[in-house]
Design goal:
Helix content: under 10%
Strand content: over 45%
Number of helices: 4
Number of strands: 30
Largest sheet: 30 strands, parallel
C-alpha cells in the first residue's frame, strides 16, 4: 500500500479540520478572536473584531467558546448582545484597555456590556478602564450629580451564569453593575483602584435575584459592594474589602417606586482601612419602601470607621429635607460575630427613622475596640430597641446620635 505524504501546509490544514471535528464532537465550537481580525497590539481598536467574533460564537447552535488570546486589546465601547442559541463561554487571556479620552465614552453608560444572555461563562482577563483623567472631572461632591461616565463592565439581564477570575482596574465610574440579572455568580473577582478614585463602586447590584459574590478582593474609592433597590437573595462571602467605603445596602428611598430589598447575607468577610464596615442607608423624606431580612455574620474589621451602621438620614451632599423622616421600613436585621478594631469613636450606630422605627434588629457576639485620645468606643441607637445576645462590646446603645 502506497503511503500518502502531505506537504506542511496540507498537514496543518488537516490538523485544523481534525481539531474542529474533535471540538464539535465534544459539544463545543471555538472561535478565536484573532482569526476574526483582532490585533491585540495595544494600538489598533479591536472592538469591531471582538464584537464580530462574539456574534459568530453566539450564533452557534451548539455550546461555543470565544477565546481572546494573550495581548493588549485597545477597545471602544462594546456590547456582547444575546440571546445566544446555546450556552457560551468567553475566555479572555489578554488585557482590554479603554480609551483615555472620556469624550469617546461619555454618551455610553457602560464600556463593556454583556446583555440578555443565558448560560454565560466569563473567564479571566483584565479590564483596564484607565480612569485617572475621568476622576478629576467627576464633581459629585460639589453638585450631587455624577458625570455621565461609563461603568467598566455591565451585566444586563444575564441569567444562570458564572463570572470568574476577572480583574477590573481603574474604572471611570463603577467597576461592575449588575442589573435585572438572575442566578449570577461572581467568583475570584479582583477590583483595583486607588482610595481617591471618586464613585468607583466595586460591584453594584440592582433589581436582581439570586446573586452570589465569593472569594474576591476589592480595593476602590467607594463601596466595595453596594445593593440598590430590588436586590433580593444576595449572598456575599469571603470578600476582602479595603480601601473603600465598605459593603452597603442602599442608598434607598431616593426615588419613587423602588422595589423591596430582601434576603441579603454577608458572611466571612474582612474589611481593612475602610470608611465603614457594613451599613444600611436610606434617604430622609423618602417615599415608602421595604428593606428586610438582612444578615451580617462572622466579619473581621481592621481599623474600620463605624464597623456597624444603619443610617436613615443619609444625605451625602447636604441637599435633603433632613427633618422629614425616611419611610423605608427596615426589619429583620442581624449583626452577629463581628470583631476587630474601629478607627472612629462611634463603633456601632443604628440610627433608624423616627417615622418608621426599625423592627427586629439583633446584635450578638460583638467585640469592636477603639483606642483614641477621646476615650473608648461608644454605641449609638435611635428609634430602635435591638435584641442583644452574647457578649457585646462596647455596651450597646450607650448614646443617642446627634
Amino acid at each position: 500500500m502506497e503511503m500518502i505524504t502531505l506537504k506542511p501546509v496540507q498537514a496543518f490544514l488537516c490538523f485544523l479540520i481534525w481539531m474542529s471535528i474533535i471540538t464539535k464532537s465534544q459539544g463545543q465550537s471555538v472561535v478565536d478572536a484573532k482569526q476574526s481580525g483582532a490585533k491585540g497590539d495595544g494600538v489598533t481598536d479591536d472592538s469591531k473584531a471582538l464584537t464580530s467574533a462574539w456574534q459568530k460564537a453566539c450564533s452557534s447552535p451548539t455550546p461555543s467558546k470565544l477565546v481572546v488570546p494573550p495581548g493588549q486589546y485597545a477597545s471602544g465601547p462594546m456590547t456582547f448582545l444575546g440571546p445566544c442559541k446555546a450556552p457560551i463561554t468567553v475566555e479572555f487571556q489578554g488585557n482590554l484597555k479603554a480609551p483615555t479620552d472620556i469624550n469617546q465614552l461619555k454618551s455610553q453608560d457602560g464600556w463593556i456590556v454583556f446583555q440578555q444572555i443565558d448560560a454565560l461563562t466569563l473567564n479571566g482577563g483584565v479590564f483596564d478602564g484607565r480612569g485617572q483623567v475621568a476622576w478629576s472631572e467627576n464633581n459629585c461632591a460639589q453638585t450631587g450629580k455624577c458625570s455621565n461616565l461609563p461603568i467598566n463592565i455591565r451585566f444586563n439581564k444575564v441569567t444562570n451564569s458564572l463570572v470568574q477570575g476577572i480583574t477590573s482596574v481603574d474604572s471611570k465610574l463603577f467597576h461592575m453593575n449588575i442589573l435585572q440579572c438572575q442566578n449570577l455568580t461572581l467568583s475570584h473577582i479582583t477590583i483595583n483602584a486607588p482610595a481617591e478614585s471618586l464613585n468607583t463602586d466595586g460591584i453594584h447590584i440592582g433589581r436582581s435575584t439570586g446573586i452570589k459574590i465569593t472569594d474576591s478582593d476589592i480595593k476602590t474609592g467607594d463601596d466595595c459592594i453596594s445593593m440598590g433597590d430590588g436586590s433580593q437573595q444576595v449572598t456575599i462571602e469571603k470578600v476582602r474589602c479595603g480601601p473603600g467605603h465598605g459593603i452597603s445596602v442602599g442608598s434607598l428611598g431616593k426615588y419613587h417606586d423602588e422595589q423591596p430589598v430582601m434576603g441579603v447575607f454577608v458572611r466571612d468577610c474582612t474589611f481593612t482601612n475602610t470608611m465603614n464596615g457594613v451599613r444600611v442607608k436610606t434617604w430622609p423624606a423618602s417615599p415608602n419602601g421595604i428593606c428586610q431580612d438582612l444578615h451580617f455574620e462572622n466579619l473581621q474589621m481592621n481599623n474600620v470607621g463605624t464597623p456597624i451602621l444603619i443610617d436613615q438620614q443619609y444625605c451625602p451632599y447636604g441637599q435633603c429635607q433632613a427633618q422629614a423622616p425616611s419611610k423605608v421600613k427596615i426589619s429583620q436585621v442581624s449583626f452577629k460575630g463581628i470583631h476587630g478594631t474601629s478607627s472612629t469613636k462611634v463603633v456601632t450606630k443604628i440610627a433608624c427613622s423616627k417615622g418608621i422605627p426599625c423592627q427586629n434588629v439583633e446584635l450578638s457576639d460583638i467585640n469592636l475596640q477603639y483606642q483614641g485620645k477621646d476615650g473608648g468606643g461608644v454605641s449609638q441607637c435611635a428609634n430602635v430597641l435591638p435584641k442583644m445576645t452574647g457578649q457585646i462590646f462596647p455596651p450597646p446603645c450607650t448614646t443617642t446620635p446627634s
